[in-house]
């Protein structure tokens, strides 16, 4: 279908010269107009029906829904560029004004544009008038203020804060709506002056507010404080941040402030502080209990035929009372009991079970039981009395007179023997304690040499996420070999070098390390018995 531009010339013709002359004249007028205005000429089909409007002139400040400004809008077609207009009463108003010449005002007009599947609404006040053979449209977007006000109200609500203004010359006070809600005050009662506000403040906080008010009235800079006020019979914590604006002579004119109700935040902060204090007290208690249950000697010490070094390293958690333990003690017959173990879990329950196991093993050793008998009895006790407890253990008995070591272990990593710079595993496995009531254990026996090092530890030393214990054992053996290679045989430095090389692989688990070094020439150092 053929279309023409302008005021209904004959079908198929365009009065381009007339349109051009009118455009120039209208544009000259719009160039000096403020705000948003456009002049469009009709596009008609062969029957003379208006099918669209073509923008020919635009004011410099004009802006459309898409952000196009001024001359960027020239050449746009209304229905083509803003298709949602076609089905609205606004389009019918355009047609009526073109037909009758009587201007119309259309307000409010809500325009909806869909971008990326999301509708965007804008509200306009529109005035429509016929000018020459075209349509002069002026518009004001009147939802910007509303949107800003809505955003501010939403921000105040989410932050539970409001703003206020106190004029020090006229005495006028203005509060935002949220400030009334924070203070449980009816807006009909009006806002409070600074003097009136001080009557709400808790007596202990009144000096804070008085000092701040004095600073503001003297023209001081921004100041922040926190006070408690009574609202509906309960205390609320209010954070106030305000400053004064000054005139040319430096005299204060107005105080502008923001008040925020932080009662919930303060309550939570106080609860967290209380929990932190309680946890700290519990940590100190557990640390004290750990030392009582299993004292650790920081420096190497002597037992019959052995130099001994031990270390206990708790897990890097708040609840660090763990189930790992060790024992190294001289027995009545001159032998030495060496043991390490691990009770599953942590906390007081694990520590309690650990203490019982450790003392039971020590008592059975003094009753002259060998390591296999000790673990056999201990396993039956666990299955009967503590079926909820699972544990691992490595128990050894050293006879210094002939340097004989008898040992066995229950589900525990094997002991390492370092001879010179060579490191090997002493394997004699047994099942986990607390699983099978009829489990039995047997001992392995080895004759040690002077300067041999026996390394016993719990699994936190070698257990690492993503790898198995055997890989950890290999890495630990390699580290010990590297640490011992440069040190001369017989040196006490070998014992310390091994301790330094025993770096835990898993900081989330507690770790015990027990290292013993056979003294030279089968020497027996009879020291006072340690009660461990």
Account of the protein in words:
There is one protein chain. This protein is of the alpha+beta class and 532 residues long. The relative contact order is 0.07. Helix 11 runs antiparallel to helix 12. It folds into three domains: 16-141, Beta-Lactamase, CATH 3.30.450; 154-266, 2-Layer Sandwich (Beta-Lactamase); 294-518, Phosphatase 2c, domain 1 (4-Layer Sandwich), CATH 3.60.40. It is elongated. It contains twelve helices and 22 strands. Strands 1, 2, 3, 4, 5 and 6 form a six-stranded antiparallel β-sheet that branches. The protein has helices at residues 16-30, 78-81, 89-100, 144-159, 177-182, 194-198, 206-217, 263-293, 348-366, 371-385, 469-484, 493-501; strands at residues 3-5, 36-45, 50-58, 104-115, 118-131, 134-141, 161-167, 173-175, 223-231, 234-246, 252-261, 301-303, 306-313, 322-330, 336-346, 391-399, 404-410, 415-419, 422-426, 444-447, 453-457, 511-518. A hairpin with a 2-residue loop joins strand 18 and strand 19.
Précis, in short:
By secondary structure, the protein is α+β, with helices and mostly antiparallel strands.
Q: Give the oligomeric state.
A: single chain
Structural class by helix and strand composition = alpha+beta
User: What is the CATH topology descriptor of the largest domain?
Assistant: Phosphatase 2c, domain 1
Distance between the termini: 107 Å
Q: Percent helix among the residues?
A: 25-40%
CATH architecture of the largest domain: 4-Layer Sandwich
Overall pLDDT, averaged? 83
Number of domains: 3
**Tally of strands:** 22
What form results from the Cα inertia axes? elongated
Strand content: 25-35%
pLDDT < 50 stretches: 7-14, 522-532
CATH class of the largest domain: Alpha Beta
Q: Count of helical segments?
A: 12
Report the C-alpha radius of gyration, rounded: 45 Å
What's the CATH H-level superfamily name of the largest domain? PPM-type phosphatase domain
- Characterize the biggest β-sheet: 6 strands, antiparallel
């Amino acid at each position: 279908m053929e279309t023409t531009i302008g005021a209904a010339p004959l079908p198929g013709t365009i009065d381009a010269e007339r349109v051009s002359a009118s455009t120039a004249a209208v544009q000259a007028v719009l160039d000096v107009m403020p705000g948003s205005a456009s002049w469009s000429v009709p596009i008609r089909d062969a029957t003379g029906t208006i099918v669209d409007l073509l923008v020919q002139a635009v004011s410099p400040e004009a802006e459309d829904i898409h952000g196009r400004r001024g001359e960027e809008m020239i050449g746009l077609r209304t229905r083509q560029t803003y298709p949602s207009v076609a089905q609205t009463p606004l389009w019918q108003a355009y047609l009526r004004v073109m037909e009758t010449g009587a201007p119309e005002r259309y307000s409010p007009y809500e325009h909806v544009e869909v971008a990326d599947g999301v509708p965007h609404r804008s509200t306009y006040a529109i005035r429509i008038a016929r000018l020459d053979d075209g349509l002069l449209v002026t518009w004001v977007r009147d939802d910007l203020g509303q949107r800003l006000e809505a955003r501010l109200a939403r921000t105040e609500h989410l932050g539970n804060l409001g703003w206020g203004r106190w004029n020090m010359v006229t005495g006028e006070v203005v509060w935002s709506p949220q400030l009334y809600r924070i203070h449980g005050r009816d807006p009909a009662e009006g806002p409070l002056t600074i003097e009136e506000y001080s009557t709400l403040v808790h007596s202990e906080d009144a000096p804070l507010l008085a000092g701040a008010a004095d600073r503001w009235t003297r023209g001081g800079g921004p100041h922040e404080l926190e006070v408690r006020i009574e609202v509906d019979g309960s205390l609320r914590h209010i954070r106030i941040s305000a400053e004064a604006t000054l005139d040319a002579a430096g005299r204060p004119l107005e105080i502008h402030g923001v008040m925020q109700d932080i009662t919930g935040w303060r309550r939570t902060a106080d609860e967290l502080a209380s929990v932190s204090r309680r946890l700290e007290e519990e940590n100190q208690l557990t640390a004290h209990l750990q030392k009582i249950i299993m004292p650790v000697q920081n420096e190497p010490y002597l037992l019959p035929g052995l130099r001994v070094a031990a270390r206990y390293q708790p897990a890097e958690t708040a609840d660090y009372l763990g189930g790992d333990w060790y024992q190294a003690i001289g027995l009545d017959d001159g032998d030495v009991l060496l043991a390490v173990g691990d009770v599953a879990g942590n906390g007081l329950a694990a520590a309690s079970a650990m203490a019982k196991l450790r003392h039971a093993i020590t008592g059975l050793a003094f009753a002259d039981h060998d390591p296999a008998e000790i673990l056999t009895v201990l396993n039956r006790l666990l299955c009967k009395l503590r079926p909820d407890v699972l544990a691992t253990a490595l128990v050894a008995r050293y006879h210094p007179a002939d340097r004989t070591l008898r040992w066995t272990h229950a589900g525990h990593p094997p002991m390492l023997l370092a001879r010179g710079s060579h490191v090997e595993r002493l394997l004699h496995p047994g099942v986990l304690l607390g699983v099978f009531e009829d489990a039995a254990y047997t001992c392995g026996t080895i004759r040690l040499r002077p300067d041999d090092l026996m390394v016993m530890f719990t699994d936190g030393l070698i257990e690492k996420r993503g790898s198995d214990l055997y890989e950890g054992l290999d890495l630990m053996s390699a580290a010990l070999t590297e640490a011992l290679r440069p040190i001369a045989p017989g040196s006490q430095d070998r014992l310390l070098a091994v301790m330094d090389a025993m770096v835990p692989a898993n900081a989330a688990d507690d770790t015990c390390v027990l290292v013993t070094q056979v003294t030279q020439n089968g020497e027996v150092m009879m020291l006072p018995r340690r009660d461990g």
